Structures are given as structure tokens and as C-alpha cells.
Task: structure prediction
Amino acid sequence: MAMREARNRRNRAGRENDDREVSRAPLGGVRRAQMITTYGVGAMVAVGDRSYIVSGLDGWKVDEAFSIREPRLQYWLKVHGFKLPPAADPPAGDGVRVRLFPEIYSCSNCHALKEFRRFGSPRGKSQCGACERPLTPSRFVVACENGHLDDFPYFAWVHKKTSPADASSDVRHELTLHSTGRTASLRSVVVRCSCGKAASLEGAFGKGAMRALGISCSGRRPWLGRGSEQRDCPAAPRTLQRGSSAAWFPISRSAISIPPWSQTIQKRIDPYYATFKTLLERQVDENIVIETIRSSGVLKGARFTEWNVLEAVRRRQGLEAAEHPDPEEWSGFEPAGELRREEYEQLLFGTANVDQGDDFECVAPSGDSGTSLPRGIGRTMLVKRLREVRALQSFTRVEMPTALAGDTRRSAMSNTDVGWLPAVEVSGEGVFLTLDAEELRRWETKAGPRVRAGQIHDNHTALMRRRIMIAAGTAAISEIWSPIDARYVLLHTLAHVLINEWSLDAGYPTAALRERLYVSEDMAGVLIYTATSDSAGSLGGVVAQGEHKRLRISLESALSRVSWCSQDPPCMEAEATGVDSLNLAACYACVLLPETSCETNNTFLDRALLVGTPDDPSIGFFSREGLGTV
Result:
């Protein structure tokens, strides 16, 4: 997928017009999937010797033929549909628009530090007009927790840090950037002004450095173009490296296609559904609806009749009318939300009849009549076919979105509501398993698991209260509590150890496997699947791990591996580890995974809840004292 530069033309009044963009030659390219995970709207990307920011959805040109439909996810995200990021050439689009950012560049020869347009660089090149040496984009930017982004305020930094009173507007101010090379710290990076002032960048990365100098957030949103600023932002700007991961955190949502939406007939009626639905809502004569179905082309090459289509349309209408928004779904504890509950029920009972074109097939293991499930496991199902739609809902900056915490920070993806979001669809296979409900309830009544999980719960609660900005004040913040409990930590850690084990047994790279958790008072399941956009997506190796005999062997091996860690005893005895102290006994030597495989960025993990501790083995759900041998 190509990236093309979006430049603003000036109208007759000399003002910049962001709506009139010049389509230019492709600057570079990235994979479509990276537009959801790495280089989405608002993210910075280095192309050659320049740095750009991916523009808003307003400037994306995508043909309707490349739309993606997933009714359940559309409903919960309140959009009309999804679209694949545009490819390099029509008809799939003509690439994604990017804008030059940061706008501040420096010259390695004359040391000038100013906006790129003021260097007089030859067209298509990044050179200093005075000395013809390459230009370098600013290494530093400033961003705030509300998603705003701006160039580092070099002028304000120099003059406010030295003597603000001497920053006279009558004096010509030309900035230069120098590196003394004496140390590798920011103390060696010095900005000088032609007025005689100079200051190093030492201390620029301090949390309150900008606010201490009276530098407030500009509210800029360069990915949306000029004139999109949000004034009076209360957040303090923070200095970041241009390539820092903290400069862009994606907020993505996904759903697995389940019946009836995954059925062939529902996929076929997608492009025509709005027309058929409108006729039914107007109570048009049934014969007219049937005739419309016949002439629409939906039956071309199909094995179903017009009456089957009519029934499918009515069924979808009924399902849509029966759904009600779940306030906790996207703002709270997602594993317990209604979207997951629908998937859980389908995974639990499987599919009876599957058409060749269906996207979902889930069956019970076969040939296991003489082999029982491992103790502690309630049920296992083989998901031979699945389709997942992943959409980029928004993004944040500076602070990572708080996992499962109802983080309300959402940066705008466009200036106007375009009614769709960028997404990709991936296919694969997987294994779904649940814990034995009776054994789980018995284990949850023990003090040991509750105390250990309570430490993570308390740390997460404190984190939520720190990060979530609530105008009502301290009283409202005190009502926020983490949903994390022993059941969630147990299932999450179990998913991690099985992914590590199956990556060895099935031959998949660990990053090709993913987890999907289903946790509530009446749900205790995990889906481990291979939904990936490359060739490692559906080779059949993971499904085989769900057979009772293989599951027993792999679970036993996985628990044996995590019963001891090369970092023990510090790993097992740690009182808090990981990002924001949201783990206990978990490190990269035992249970952590590539972050693309984990729903919560490797947080809420504790292998002691699986195998126990040396002092108290009964804490472990699968330990001999806690449950019995597997």
C-alpha cells in the first residue's frame, strides 16, 4: 500500500485550503495490516530522509468494492461498515495521504533550525538551499495525553528557560542546533538563538518540564490539517522522541464472525441488505420484494432461493432489533461484554451444519471416546474455520490505553464523521476450551488465590484512578474499581502458557497465535487461534491440539515448564512486576508473549495461580494440592 503526500494549495486570499490536495507520486509503502497496528491515522512514519504523519480518513480514497462487513462489530462501534486501507493503484484506491511532520528540520552543515519550507529545498529533495547539505527532521516532538501533537517549541524553550523578558519581538531570532559531543546526554544538544540566548535540552523530557516554563498544549492535530486545533487543552505537553512508541498507541477492536453472520447467504445479501430491509420496513407487497431479490443479482451462482434470501433478511432484522448497547462493552470489561458473550455461546455449542462458503466451523473433538479431558478443563472445541475483523477505532498518545479500564481518551480519526473505519479481515483456526465450573468455584473460595489476585486488582484500581480524568473530582474517582479477579488472571495465564507450548508442538511462531478471553461470573473460556494475514494462518496444527489426548499431554508439559523459571526465585517471589506493576510471577523467561498475541499487552499474569508457590502449592488451580494431577 502506497503513501502519497497531501499538500495544501493557497487560495486567492493567500489562505491555505486543506480540502484541495495535490496527488503526488508515491513516497513509499507499508502493508495494509500495518495501517491498523503500526502506521494508522495520526502515526508518524519515516520515508527516506523525511518524516510524515498519516492523515485523517477524510483524505483516504477507497472504492466501495473493498468494503468489509461485520454487522456485530459495526453495531457496537456505531459505524456503517469498514474498509480495507487503500492500495497503491485504482480501483482499490490511490494510497494513503500523509503530511510532512515534524515541520522543523535542521541542517548538519550550517546548523540552521527552522521550518522545512524556509530552507528553500529543491523540489522533491530534502536539502538546505544555502549549503546543499541533507536536512534532518527534528528528533523531538511534544504530545499530550489527549492525543495532540506538535513540533518541539525550540524558540520558547530557549527564551523562557533563559530570560523571558529579553525575548524582544524587535530582535531577529534565528535558531541553530549544535551538538557538543562531550556526552551522550541531552546536555550536549544545545539550541542557540541569534539574539545571543542558548540552552541545552537537558531536562526537556521531564514530566512537568513544559508546564514549569509556562508552555501549554497547542491542541494541534497535524494529521487533520491546519485549522483542526482544539483550543484550551488542559493537559501538559510532554517531550517525546519522534520514533518513540509512546507517540502513537492504537485502539483496535475485533469481532469473530459467528452464525448467522458468518453464513454464506448472509455474506451474499450484505451489498443488497439495505434495499431489501427498506422494502420490508415500508411493508411493500411480498411479491414485489421477491421480484426485487430476483433482479438484484444476489441469486447468481447461488444454491439458495429467493425465499431463503427473504427469510435471511427477516432474520437479520430480528437480530438487529433484539440487540441493545452494552455500556460496559467498549468502555469497561470487554471479556465480559455482550459481544464476547455471543461468541462464547456459539463456541460452547458449536455448529451443526456448515456450508462450504461459511466463515465459521466449530465442532467437538472426534475419536476421544476413550480419553477424558484433563482435570480442571470443562470442555474443548475445535474451531476449524474462523474469520476475524480487526478495526482501528482510534488512538492515544503519551500514556498507553489503560487495559480493561474504561479509558475515555479517543483521538479524532477525521474532521467529519465518515461513517466507516479502516479494518482488515483475517482467517484461521483455533481451539476453544473452558474450565470446569465446579472446580473453579471451589478454587475461588480459597484465600490464597484471592489474596494474590487482589494485589493485581489493587494496582490496577490505582492505575485507573490516576489515568482517568473525571470532572466530578475525587469522589467519582473513588468509585472506580478494577474488574480483575482470580478467575481472569488464571485464564489469562493459562492462555499464555498454552500458546508458548503449542508454538513448539504445532510449529507456529508464537507471534502467529493469539488469545481471546471470555470471563464473567458465568463464563470461563479462552480461544487460542491463528488468525493472521500471512501464510501461517491455517495449517491445521493448532486444531489438532484440542483433541483430548493431545491437550492432556500439552497441558501437562506446559504446567511443568512454568513450575520453574530460570529467573526464580526472584520471579516467583516478586510482589509486583511488568508494566504499571500489573503482574506477579511473570517474565519473558516463563509466560510473557509477543504483545501482538496478548489482549492486554502482557499484563494481569501470575503463573502461581496455575502451579502454586513453594510455600503454598494449593494456590495453583492445577497443582496437586489445589486440584490434583492432570
Notes: The longest strand covers residues 377-396. The chain has three domains: 2-63+86-249, 254-322, 334-353+373-393+429-619. Residues 9-22, 326-331, 470-475 have pLDDT under 50 and may be disordered.
